[in-house]
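Tokens in:
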């Protein structure tokens, strides 16, 4: 939009009044004439012009800065903040029964905050987690931030797990006895299943990046990466201590007679087979179904 020189001149007294508030310096309106205001010439017929603004210049500068400082990636392909942008998390409180007990017994929320003097203790690094917070198998690993590994969560009623699944990675069937799980995929694809209880149908879904599902409290559920690329999910819980119980490991942890009876008396099942099955159960996160392993060339 273009304004005539006379219109601009008429606005100068108002702009002069505003100048002291914004730090601007404007010429004396009495010395400005229409002829002293520069005007742009119209473009030649058939030509085009491109307007540039300070905002565009700033955006371009910002883009250049981002390009000059790209984010790095983990070995599993997930993006991380450049190391220069983040200070290390303090893991000294993790797994410490004394501070955990003090935080649980604190009378008020401010008391809990004051029991943790270091700001960095309120930070949890899923790329470099404290001891006893990771579960690792052939198909990937999961990292949990709960009241044990991240005591500042005590009193908040929440916790979180991040799962890093490799090609064909399989988070084996399990339950969380004390919380519903809300699960979002932040990289790759996951196939999910859950069964709430006896009589409920099994719910199947395939989740792409930034898609989410839920696993109700106590529901038996699983996540599987069906592709040959890495997948990462973030799981939030409405408990500082949601708990976890792997289905196969729990079942074969019962005594031999119980396992044999549960499978059925019409099925030949020797006691020695129980121990064999126990030894064959893979550590979570496991490598997944046979068709995926063949597709991705994984032995």
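Residues out:
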């Amino acid at each position: 939009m273009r304004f005539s020189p006379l219109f601009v001149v008429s606005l100068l007294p108002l702009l002069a009044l505003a100048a002291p508030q914004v730090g601007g310096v404007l010429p004396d309106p009495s010395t400005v004439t229409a002829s002293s205001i520069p005007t742009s010439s119209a473009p030649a017929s058939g030509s085009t012009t491109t307007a540039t603004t300070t905002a565009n210049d700033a955006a371009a500068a910002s883009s250049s800065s981002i390009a000059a400082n790209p984010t790095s990636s983990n070995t599993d392909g997930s993006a991380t903040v450049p190391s220069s942008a983040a200070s290390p998390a303090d893991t000294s409180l993790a797994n410490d029964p004394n501070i955990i007990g003090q935080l649980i017994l604190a009378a008020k929320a401010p008391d809990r905050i004051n029991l943790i003097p270091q700001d960095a203790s309120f930070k949890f690094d899923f790329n470099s987690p404290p001891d006893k917070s990771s579960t690792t198998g052939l198909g990937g690993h999961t990292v949990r931030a709960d009241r044990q590994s991240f005591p500042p969560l005590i009193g908040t009623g929440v916790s979180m797990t991040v799962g890093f699944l490799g090609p064909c990675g399989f988070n084996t069937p399990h339950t969380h006895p004390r919380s519903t799980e809300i699960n979002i995929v932040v990289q790759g694809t996951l196939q999910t299943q859950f069964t709430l209880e006896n009589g409920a149908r099994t719910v199947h879904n395939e989740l792409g990046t930034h898609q989410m599902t839920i696993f109700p409290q106590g529901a038996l559920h699983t996540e599987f990466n069906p592709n040959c690329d890495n997948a990462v999910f973030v799981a939030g819980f409405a408990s500082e201590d949601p708990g976890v119980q792997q289905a196969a490991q729990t079942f074969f942890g019962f005594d031999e007679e119980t396992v044999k009876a549960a499978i059925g008396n019409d099925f030949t099942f020797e006691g020695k087979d129980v121990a064999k099955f126990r030894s064959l159960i893979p550590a979570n996160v496991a490598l997944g179904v046979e068709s995926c392993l063949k597709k991705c060339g994984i032995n």
